[in-house]
Amino acid sequence: MNITYSEAAKCFKLDMADASYVIGIVDEEKFVGHAYFGKKLGEEDVAYLLRTGEAPFTPEQNARDRLSFLDCFPMEYPTGGIGDFRESAIEVRDNGGHRALQLNLKDYRIYEGKKALPGLPATWGSEKDTRTLELTLEDKVLQVEVILSYSVFEGIDAVARHTKVINKGNAPVMLEKVMSASIDMDDREYDKLILHGSWARERHIDRTPLNYGVQSTASVRGESGHQQQPFMALLEKHATEDVGEVYGINLLYSGNCMTLVDKGQFDNVRLMSGINPARFGWKLNPGEEFQSPEAVLVYSSEGIGGMSRTFHDLYRTHLIRGEYRDKKRPILINNWEATYFDFDTDKLLAIAREASALGIEMLVMDDGWFGNRYDDNRALGDWDVNEEKIKGGLKYLVDEVNKLGMKFGIWFEPEMISPESELYRKHPDWAIQIPGRMAGLARNQLVLDMSRAEIQDYVYEKMAAVLRSANIEYVKWDMNRPLSDIGSLALSPECQGELFHRYVLGLYRLQERLITDFPHLLLENCSGGGARFDAGMLYYSPQIWCSDDTDAIERLMIQEGTALIYPLSAMGAHVSDCPNHAVGRVTPFETRGHVALAGTFGYELDVTKIPKEDREMIPEQVKMYHKYNDLVRMGDYYRIASYRENHMYDCYMVVKKDKSEALVTFVQVMGRPNSHSRRILLKGLAPEKTYRIEGEERTYLGSTLMQAGILVENIWGDFKSKLIHVIEA
Ligand code: GLA
């Protein structure tokens, strides 16, 4: 990893493990151009890729056709209003109401390490393993400065980018769009890949050809959302799981977001990511600065799988924080699907007693323990323990659970307020709302205006009091509706466009405070399942609940899409009861365990009520988790076959970093009559090493396992699964 500047070539070069990123400066005006992002280059200069030798030349040589230059030059951070008619990365409205900005290089800095982003999640690194380039660009007319920041990390083919806008002029400006990163490339017949979904169907993979014009994936829900991830990949047409060039971009942000690709008249492709400009506006007074969230660009020459492994490594080593990052998480049992709102101390203790005897390590008390929360129509905001349900109080319950040798965890939905609550009766003005307009309900609740510090502080103190009242070691932080009727009673009319982003900043401030004050707490984020499964939240919590759909077969698709970007260590996955509450499907208990093993692993069922045969399997599953979790959490993930594509079976594996061990999960979704065994080619092993498959006598060379493969016998029945443990002999 290195960052250099060549005065002769007028190029900045960012070198990663196996990739390079080149930025060139052209013309006397110093336009900042994107020259190259791809497989690692040698020392040679590639400034010629900026095509300044071709018509329409650079402005200083051909001022007459200045607009032709602006509209075709591969910009590093394109601006609107002066002649680049493609999508712009930034839009600024000046005091006179005009929209134009021209950014040219003023200065640069290269340094070891990486600075934190105040109030925002970001990748981090030390002076040893991270380097940063900062380009300061300026618009001389408005005296607006834009600092583009680029960081690279030892051993990882990724560039982390963000943008800061500073108003150095004398008049306020309105920021209408500030993308975190933008990159211009030549089209190489790319496909684009996004993750789409819905509640209980999150992060399904969608790959389509890249067309001309603008294509985007975005959220205006105030959260990253179930529907579209802050992510896009561009893939060479022939790229597969294992081969071909792939570019991925992922925003580290949990609010309104947009990833956009624009294929233009010269088959040029502009890819950008940032806060969604829809419904966004930010007033920047003289002397003020605006910091964008961070976006990560990943390059892979080893197909989609290579991209995933790079994201996983980056996020495991340079994003997720806290003591649980590298630790096995306690196997939890959550009472949501077990009891919904119908529980009390006795019921919870009965579940805990049975669970602890089976080896489960933590009881999580979900929604329904506070105020008069007997159903989901009331009480959000009233974070006082309901002692009618929690008889004897919270401390008694937690102590009893602890006496069983189990940890205790609790659910909150801190950002919400029910109209039917004590809090709303006292503070109706605390809800996000537009004066004179009845704010729409979702799940019968409204959203607290988390942009306001006094509301953040109130919620925080209530939560902290609960957490201090007993030995609570885990929090599930939920968020069960999108934001609508956007209005804050604390913002002036011209600043209402800031609310969405200020809300997210408030959320981050609260979570930062929580993990600072309670450093040993295991925090799991959640949003009606996986509506806020994003890299922003991963900065605060090492795990996120993947989906309210716990069906093992649905989970194959959800977890495949999630693992496209996010490490398995972050995927909240539980074994639940059947018929499954989301789809009504009945799958073997064993398969449910094997599929949940690919995530954090836990249970979401009433262990006192499930069939005896299922209950009897739990101690074995607990052993399985302890045997394999280090490997799953820290290993390299390879997709072998996708049920989404073949409609028959699914297969993936995790390989230990030193290649001494691997675990293959094979799920035969649909049983097949009259079939012989299926040949599976393993991946990621060391070709020269000798391996053994647990339970078999013979040994195999790694090359044999990867080229000739193994035969997995046909299993009789639907939804059956098998683990194959490969160990170095
Ligand atoms: C959301 C979560 C569930 C559960 C419920 C409680 O839907 O995703 O896991 O916590 O809320 O209301």
Question: Can you walk through the features of this model?
Answer:
Helix content is 20%, strand content 31%. It is of the alpha+beta class and 729 residues long. Strands 6, 7, 8, 9, 11, 12, 14, 15, 19 and 20 form a ten-stranded antiparallel β-sheet that branches. A nine-stranded parallel β-sheet has the order 29-28-27-26-23-22-21-31-30. Strands 5, 10, 13, 16, 17 and 18 form a six-stranded antiparallel β-sheet that branches. Strand 7 and strand 8 form a beta hairpin. Helix 10 packs parallel to helix 11. The structure holds alpha-D-galactopyranose (GLA). The site of alpha-D-galactopyranose (GLA) has 12 residues, from loops.
Describe what is shown at a glance.
The chain is of the alpha+beta class and 729 residues long.
Largest sheet: 10 strands, antiparallel
Approximately what portion of the residues adopt beta-strand conformation?
Answer: 25-35%
Bound molecules: alpha-D-galactopyranose
Question: What's the total helix number?
Answer: 14
Low-confidence stretches: none
Structural class: alpha+beta
DSSP strand tally: 39
Rg, alpha carbons: 27 Å
Mass-distribution shape: globular
| Gap from first CA to last CA | 35 Å
The helical percent reads 10-25%
Mean pLDDT: 97
List keywords for this structure.
729 residues; 14 helices; single chain; globular; binds alpha-D-galactopyranose; 9-stranded parallel β-sheet; 39 strands; alpha+beta; 20% helix; 10-stranded antiparallel β-sheet
